[in-house]
Design brief:
This protein is mostly helical. Helices cover about 65% and strands about 0% of the residues.
Length: about 190
């Protein structure tokens, strides 16, 4: 990281900050504070909002875990956020119907290219993720494809997931959280 992480356990200045740390720990469970949390806790109110928002994205949506984790992992690859990749690729790999060929496709398919190993919902999400991450503006044909597969609620959840993890990846890379910026790919150290 470009400056020191907060210590673990963090030094708190108030009961409010203690409550924030407790909420972050509660969401993380047995994993404890991650390097990302220890970077965010330099600004406790930001860490609190982040924790609440990302908690909702991770556990409060109706989309399948394979759709969610595919979007997160693709954002990580496109933004070279290898810390994010290392935390989410195993979650994607654990999803029903996802095998090594799918992980390879997320990691190795060039931006805006078609990966033929995915079913239509996963392929549509990968295409949408590429457009949102690289171009921001979404061509009508890509959006119409999503509308044929997903409900309005699911499209909002997918869009929020992609948006949120673009935020996460940009934070991770800007501050070099986890000291992964020198990697050239998910397996390069």
């Amino acid at each position: 990281m470009r400056f020191p992480y907060v210590e673990d356990p963090p030094t708190v200045q108030s009961e409010e900050e203690k409550a924030i740390v407790d909420r972050v720990r509660q969401r993380r469970g047995s994993a404890g504070l991650l390097e990302l949390d220890r970077a965010l806790l330099h600004a406790p109110p930001v860490a609190d909002g982040w924790n609440s928002f990302l908690g909702a994205i991770r556990t409060g949506t109706s989309i399948s875990s394979s759709i969610r984790e595919l979007a997160i992992c693709r954002v990580a690859v496109l933004n070279k956020a290898w810390y994010e990749w290392e935390h989410h690729a195993p979650l994607l790999q654990a999803c029903t119907g996802i095998g090594p060929e799918h992980i390879d496709a997320v990691r190795k398919t060039p931006a805006k290219q078609f990966a033929d190993v995915f079913n239509e919902p996963h392929s549509a999400v990968m295409t949408y993720t590429d457009a949102m991450t690289l171009d921001v503006s979404i061509p009508d044909d890509i959006f119409e494809r999503l509308k044929k597969i997903f409900s309005n609620k699911e499209i909002v959840e997918i869009t929020a997931t992609i948006s949120a993890y673009n935020c996460v990846s940009r934070f991770l890379v800007a501050l070099d959280v986890g000291e992964r910026n020198e990697q050239r790919g998910p397996n390069d150290h």
